[in-house]
Specification:
mainly beta, binds coenzyme A, five-stranded antiparallel beta sheet, 2 helices
Length: 147
């Protein structure tokens, strides 16, 4: 089978409250020994993308406290166009949890999307001393999040 062949059906892109928070194309320097993209590179991009929505609500410093789940569903390859979609799944007292989904447009099949990764991460609002602080709740409404 050719490396360019997509062995799984195309995935429809999200059309609901999930927001496009990052697009990036991995480069040859980001590969592992197999020639695919290094998982740690993908994790770093997901951490950056995941921080976008929490940053909107935290209004100040924050830190990643947990990667609750991380699934590599399909390999990522040099030249894929990666689209990162995110939505908030929980707002606590000091923390916000998001779900991040990553879709690839293969180098030779732009316009067709394959889900390659999904993850859940939690970010904590911190003060100047690095201690957890409450998330401002005044006027806080988050699309798609009930309660
Ligand atoms: C983030 C940090 C300040 C939190 O301090 P802490 O003493 O664990 O704080 P708390 O126990 O009060 O928890 C704070 C929030 O994080 C959540 N939390 C803590 N550990 C968690 C875990 N393992 N999974 C999910 N959420 C977690 C708590 O539920 C709480 O959220 P809530 O207030 O919304 O209920 C501290 O753990 C820290 O500095 N970690 C390093 C962060 C960092 O450097 N990140 C980059 C990694 S390279």
């Amino acid at each position: 089978m050719s490396r360019e062949t997509n062995p799984r059906p195309e995935t429809p892109l999200p059309k609901d409250h999930r927001e496009l928070v990052l697009k990036v194309i991995p480069m040859p320097a980001d590969t592992n020994g197999n020639g695919d993209i290094f998982g740690g590179w993908v994790m770093a991009q997901v951490d950056l993308a995941g921080a976008v929505l929490p940053a909107r609500y935290v209004r100040g410093r924050m830190a990643t406290v947990a990667v609750n789940q991380f699934i590599f569903k399909q390999p990522v390859r040099v030249g894929d166009i990666l689209s990162f979609f995110s939505h908030v799944t929980r707002v606590g007292n000091t923390s916000i949890t998001v779900q991040v989904e990553v879709f690839a447009e293969r180098f030779s099949a732009q316009g067709q999307y394959v889900k390659v990764t999904e993850a859940s991460l939690t970010y904590v609002a911190i003060d100047r001393e690095g201690r957890p602080r409450p998330i401002p709740k005044d006027g806080l409404t988050i699309p798609g999040l009930s309660g």
